Amino acid sequence: MSAPTAGRGRLMGEVSRFRRRTERWRWFWTDFGEALAGTFTSRLGLVFIGDAALFLTAVLGLVHFWSRAMTVQDYALLQAVCLACQAVALYPVARPGRGATPGDIREISDTHQGATVALVCGTWIFGYLPAAPILVHVTGDADSKPVIATMLTGTALMLACVAGLITAVALSSRAAERAAADSPGPPGVSGMPDTGDVGGGDFGD
Question: Which residues contact 102 (CB under 8 A, 6 or more apart)?
Fold first, then answer.
């Protein structure tokens, strides 16, 4: 085999291998994109959307009040927006959808609990708690605007998460009860069994 022919063969082999790798990655990203899109367009995706909106609200509040004084009305508005974001995350727990089984409801409730606990613990452990003493040291004033903005935005986020976690327990329990009541019984059985003829009339004879 001549040198040009051998070189052409190696080149074609490299091109073929590159095409196979590209095709495998294309399949991977296509499947990943479809799964991600399905998650965020489903009811379960509202949990992540609501918690993400809550986090962004706290961050924007911190940036806005970094150099501004925060009044009681400002904090009340911030808290209301945080609660509204948490309400979005709670919607799938309260309304899991028609035909949802107790297992589906438990999955949604567990997802909400995990995402919300991760949000509040992550922001406080890795954000607010380390930042507060650093800001006090840098500004030299525990009542400075950055310190107050940091603590109050963190408090608004934490209270919204705690309220969401407490509410989710009651909502998921109620939704599970509704799903259990609406689920069909065994074939040939409708509703609760009739216990009026227990014993076939043996009592009282």
Answer: 176, 179, 180
Per-residue pLDDT of the chain (205 residues; tens, 9 = 90+): 555 565 566 666 666 776 776 766 665 545 544 444 444 446 788 899 999 999 999 999 999 999 999 999 999 999 999 999 999 999 988 888 777 787 888 888 899 999 999 999 999 999 888 888 898 888 888 888 999 999 999 999 999 999 999 999 988 888 777 766 666 554 444 444 444 444 444 444 4
Domain ranges of the chain: 43-181
Interatomic CA distance for residues 199 and 40, integer angstroms: 55
Rounded to whole angstroms, the Cα distance separating 168 from 185 reads: 27
Residues 47 and 45: their CA atoms lie apart, in Å, by: 5
